[in-house]
């Protein structure tokens, strides 16, 4: 998942001697927030069964998470301008750790709203972390190699999104997603508390790791660091809305993030369907456990949850291939091709069944790979002095990760999880039109 945040600051152009030693530590943060973010995918499947939620209610987890990004992006820029890079990173880590710790009372009381509040807190801390870490890693060294450092850091972020669902599935889904029905209320609540205790464990471990990182960065707060100059970009300037390329680009960021998050969020439940991969998952889990000489086989939910890693892993591989392709082809055409491919795969998965449908929906990850950065750069073309403000508008559009998944969930409740893939397919159609217009220069000229 792309790290999106309003970078409301500019760093000094000249690196500070000795600050480059912080680079490996900062790069590790990119892995950490990628890992934490995609834990939502197996978590959604577990909470849905734990609290007997419909799909729309289950997708409120992503609503709470991305609401934190939306509300805290601008304040995070002010925090960075006030406290600098290292202190802001320490604060972001501490807030995210507190969000992870909040899983403990949520599990003890087995209340879904408390889980949502915990996720909101985690996302708020990660927002501050990203707003500080993105420009910080670019400033830790010569300006000529800034893009290289940021690309490397984003590669580690992709590695985190690849590994996260696999680890999350092993621990969060270790007791599966099926709860016995028709239990007395007291027994049902006791069972929910027991299952919620399992859910909280990986988040409590993460809380300890994040707090350790926060303490480490706090101890390093007086190390040499580039200075920060506040610029506070505004996404609501009237001049921006006279730029069709930018406005349409913001719409595409909104629907892209929404489509990407919707598919990842519903993927475990989609794969668990008997007509897709559910009947094969348990057998595959037993074979995998036998190969690893484990006495207890992996359950179907763990297998399906671990397969979500393929979705994010293909996106990671696609970025490397896409980087090469984009250096040789018009970005608008590449974007349109990838969006049409994603739409075709989504519709194919919606209209088919079995391993073919599973393969189609997982392959959407590869098609997603270049979309976010390509939309972002196309939308900012020819903005000149308005670039920072345009970037702020595009980052605000990441709120699509809060809205579209709920729409996807409500559609799944109405027509089924497979057929609900028409929602992300429609999103990809909008992106394909934008790429086509951008390639031809039609309809996107300044008003």
Task: Figure out the total of helices.
Answer: 18
Q: How many E-type strands?
A: 2
Looking at the structure, what is the overall shape?
A: globular
- CATH-assigned fold name of the largest domain: Growth Hormone, Chain: A
Structure, described:
By secondary structure, this protein is an all-alpha fold. The chain has 2 domains: about 1-225, MFS general substrate transporter like domains (Growth Hormone, Chain: A), CATH 1.20.1250.20; about 235-445, Up-down Bundle (Growth Hormone, Chain: A). Helices cover about 75% and strands about 0% of the residues. The chain has 18 helices and 2 strands. A two-stranded antiparallel sheet has the order 1-2. The longest helix is centred in the middle third of the chain and has 35 residues, at about 185-220. It is globular, with a radius of gyration of 22 Å. Residues about 5-15 have low confidence and may be disordered.
């Amino acid at each position: 998942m792309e790290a999106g945040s309003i970078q409301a600051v500019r760093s000094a152009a000249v690196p500070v001697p000795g600050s480059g030693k912080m680079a490996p530590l900062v790069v590790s943060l990119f892995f950490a927030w990628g890992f934490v973010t995609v834990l939502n995918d197996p978590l959604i499947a577990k909470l849905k069964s734990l609290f007997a939620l419909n799909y729309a209610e289950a997708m409120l987890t992503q609503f709470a998470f991305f609401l934190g990004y939306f509300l805290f992006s601008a304040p995070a820029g002010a925090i960075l301008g006030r406290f600098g890079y290292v202190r802001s990173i320490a604060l972001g880590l501490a807030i995210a750790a507190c969000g992870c710790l909040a899983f403990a009372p949520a599990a003890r009381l087995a209340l879904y709203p408390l889980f949502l509040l915990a996720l909101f807190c985690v996302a708020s801390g990660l927002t501050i972390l990203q707003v500080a870490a993105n420009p910080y890693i670019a400033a830790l060294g010569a300006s000529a190699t800034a893009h290289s450092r940021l690309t490397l850091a984003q590669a580690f972020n992709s590695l985190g999104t690849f590994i996260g669902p696999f680890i999350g599935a092993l621990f969060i889904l270790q007791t599966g997603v099926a709860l016995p029905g028709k239990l007395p209320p007291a027994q049902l609540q006791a069972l929910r508390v027991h299952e919620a205790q399992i859910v909280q464990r990986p988040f409590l471990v993460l809380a300890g790791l994040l707090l350790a990182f926060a303490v480490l960065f706090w101890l390093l707060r007086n190390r040499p660091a580039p200075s920060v100059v506040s610029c506070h970009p505004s996404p609501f300037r009237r001049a921006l809305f006279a730029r069709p390329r930018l406005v349409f680009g913001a719409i595409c960021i909104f629907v892209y993030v929404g489509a990407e998050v919707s598919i990842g969020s519903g993927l475990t439940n989609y794969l668990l369907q008997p007509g897709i991969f559910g009947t094969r998952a348990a057998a595959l889990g037993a074979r995998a456990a036998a190969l690893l000489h484990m006495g207890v086989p992996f359950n179907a939910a763990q297998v399906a949850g671990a397969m979500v890693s393929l979705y994010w892993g293909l996106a990671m591989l696609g970025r490397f291939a896409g980087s090469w392709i984009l250096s040789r082809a018009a970005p608008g055409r590449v974007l349109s091709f990838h969006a049409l491919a994603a739409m075709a795969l989504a519709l194919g998965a919606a209209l088919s069944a079995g391993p073919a449908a599973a393969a189609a929906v997982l392959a959407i990850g590869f098609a997603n790979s270049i979309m976010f950065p390509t939309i972002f750069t196309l939308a900012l073309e020819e903005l000149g002095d308005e670039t920072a403000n345009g970037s702020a508008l595009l980052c605000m559009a990441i709120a699509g990760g809060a809205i579209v998944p709920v729409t996807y969930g409500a559609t799944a409740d109405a027509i089924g999880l497979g057929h609900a893939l028409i929602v992300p397919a429609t999103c990809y159609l909008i992106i394909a039109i934008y790429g086509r217009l951008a390639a031809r220069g039609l309809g996107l000229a300044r008003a």
